[in-house]
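BUG-726 | component: ligand-complex export | severity: low

The export step for MGD jobs runs without errors, but we want the raw record kept on the ticket for reference. Input record follows.
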Amino acid sequence: MLFGRRTKNPIKIPAKPVAKWAYTTCGYCSTGCTIEVGLDQNGRAVTARGLTDAPVNRGKLCLKGIFEFEVFNAANRGRAPLVRERFFEPFQETTWDAALDKTASEIKRIQTTYGRDAFAIVSTGQILTEEFYTLGKLARGVIGTNNYDGNTTLCMASAVSGYKRSFGSDGPPGCYDDFNHTDCLLAIGSNLPEQHPIIYWRLKEARDARKFPVIVVDPRVTVFAQMADMHLPITPGTDLVLLNSLAHVILDEGLEDRAYIGAHTTGSAEFSKLVEQYDPVTASRICGIDADTIRNVARLYAKSPAAMTIWTMGINQSTHGSDGVVAINNLNLITGNIGKPGGTSLSITGQCNAMGTREFSSCSGLPAYRYLENETDREFMAEYWGVDKDFFPTKRGLFQTDIFPAIEAGKIKGLWLIATNPMSSMPNTPRIRKTLEKLEFLAVQDAYADVETTQYAHAFLPAALWGEKEGVFTNTERRVNLVRKVMDPPGRAKPDLWIFNELAKRFETGQKMRFPETAAAVFEEMRELSKGRLCDYSGMTHDKIEQRRGIQWPCNETNPEGAPRLYTDGVFQHADGKARLIPLPFVDNNERPDEQYPFWLNTGRVVEHWHTRTKTGKIGNLNKFSPTPYMEMNPAAASKLGIQHMEYVRVVSRRSDTVIMVQLTERVAPDAVFIPMHFHECVNRLVLGLLDPYSRQPAFKQSAVRIEKVTDQETAAVRNKVVRSY
Ligand SMILES: Nc1nc2c(c(=O)[nH]1)N[C@H]1C(S)=C(S)[C@@H](COP(=O)(O)OP(=O)(O)OC[C@H]3O[C@@H](n4cnc5c(=O)[nH]c(N)nc54)[C@H](O)[C@@H]3O)O[C@H]1N2
Ligand SMILES: Nc1nc2c(c(=O)[nH]1)N[C@H]1C(S)=C(S)[C@@H](COP(=O)(O)OP(=O)(O)OC[C@H]3O[C@@H](n4cnc5c(=O)[nH]c(N)nc54)[C@H](O)[C@@H]3O)O[C@H]1N2
Ligand code: SF4
Ligand SMILES: [Mo]
């Protein structure tokens, strides 16, 4: 292929020797793109392309998807199980039998000595749904600890909690096709072009065709804010005030959908009374958006025949995360914008299978949106799995963010981490280090042997990655898509499903229960027990999913091809079939900038990197665009402190400090800085992470810091390279 200067030194990309294209689904973000991996004659992955007839991505991929096939040969993959007696000793390579025997016997020892809940399990949003379901069966039916959760508490917990409070169930009601029908799009705390590039492309195509207004609410001038019709640079952590005020204007000016409110909601009187207090002038003093803009946006939204809201971590990762989600739902309920084309509350999910864990992992309850608190659900699952129903706890246990303090307090003595790296991703790294040191036993099950959490592990279980195993992922719009096996795992690494099954065999009840070996057989169980539930998979099979290039649940006899939207009939999942309008008073409880710590610290992502960089840090074509940590700082603020572009500075919070390179940019306000989350021993040393009272999700986006000049620039540069590069 030839590019650019055709006559003088053209850039030549040699054709790749592809013998076979293999179908699979991207393992990074929740967009859910279908990928074809090109294999050469020796079965080596040499290239990738987006599948043209895939309904989500229509032939497109973002740069992470394009280079994803390189993870198969990346450095430091886990190839052999490792064990050791104490975490400061060197690891010994061992057999799978020995590593699994040790893990099982440590689980039993800890549970016998300290009680069943003294052993905790924290999983992820990044393994296959069949694996989630099997892990749930193992955790709930065999091991029987109630301290079982996922990293989704850092990510989607507020969305889940908000959907449950408003609609009576989790489950995003909208889809990407809503962009093709909407007349107004409000995007809150989401940087779609960098974090979900292909969803953004879908939005852009729809907007180019129909020219509807896009309003972006974000304290930072993101790429998304730059393409918006209106950018609302909100004061950090005050979205709830803005949303209450939008509702105030709508009700005050009689722009609400009375008929919809009357037929499909309860609680409107209490709700109206609360939002009366949030007139635009009062609200503007708190949220920093002027009163006229609030009125303008409220009118625009309410007068649009169909209006929708999307949001991501700017809402969820806040002390008002769950309330923020409910407030978005309130806005859409009072304007009749739920379940109709272009009118919806669509939470943009994060990890490739954050939805799969919500549907089937049993982290917060039992499979297919069943609850531990519900006797009928407990009976059904106990019978289905062949366990005693009284073996199940009667309410959910600790969230991830409460499991770590429980370790600190000595209540939890053993931990099993599956596909998550809390050493880098949890707030307050120094405290997490101290916490992990206290464990009597830590098992780390990860695809990479150099994941930071192994520093404290007693057993390392090397796992197969995406594309080295088979099963399904569910994306943001409830579309279930298939990951086909493209490649064998390296060395002796094994699929997570195999590891769960082998561990189950080491427990008495596990030997009696059914633990099918293949993902297709596990999928049969999921189909069966989801029949008649909201997340109904009963009309799907692996082959049908591949043929259709993904199917949106519910998929059953009524909807054999799946359904694009939920709640189209206005019947919700609360017992009375109505949605709740919930009054949400704003309580200002964040750590705020003050004289000692005068800057807001905001954190998030860049397009090239994935979370803690275990994957993208080793892929040359991604890492080279963003090789070192950096901090965005406003030039006006920097000049006051005498700080130059590209200089190293020390950033200090009440927790700890870090040394980092400064990038001067007006993307951030003079009283704010932004640091990407991707680098180890970096931003999460500083973050406080206060928890939302409903979802227990940390406020990663709001902390206070001060910035100090560093005189010895050379040492800072060397240290930076040693600690944070691969
Ligand atoms: N390239 C890449 N893509 C990813 C990921 C990745 O690591 N890399 N991770 C995936 C995952 S798991 C997730 S959860 C998603 C996250 O996707 P996003 O949520 O879109 O990404 P973030 O950068 O974390 O945060 C989004 C925005 O929230 C803004 N924000 C901060 N504070 C506030 C506030 O108080 N109010 C408002 N309204 N906005 C605020 C930030 O300025 C930021 O621009 O991305 C997914 N996609
Ligand atoms: N400051 C700050 N911190 C944040 C955030 C933020 O915005 N700001 N965002 C939070 C959010 S939204 C999220 S989702 C978390 C993410 O935080 P983590 O989940 O801790 O981050 P990852 O790097 O994605 O870790 C996943 C691990 O799973 C491994 N892995 C990948 N695939 C497989 C597999 O198939 N099997 C196994 N066994 N292992 C596998 C990878 O190698 C990697 O080590 O970070 C949170 N932390
Ligand atoms: S947009 Fe997300 S799912 Fe699609 S290729 Fe990029 S990382 Fe993969
Ligand atoms: Mo996330």
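Assignee comment: Attached the raw record above. The mean pLDDT is 96.
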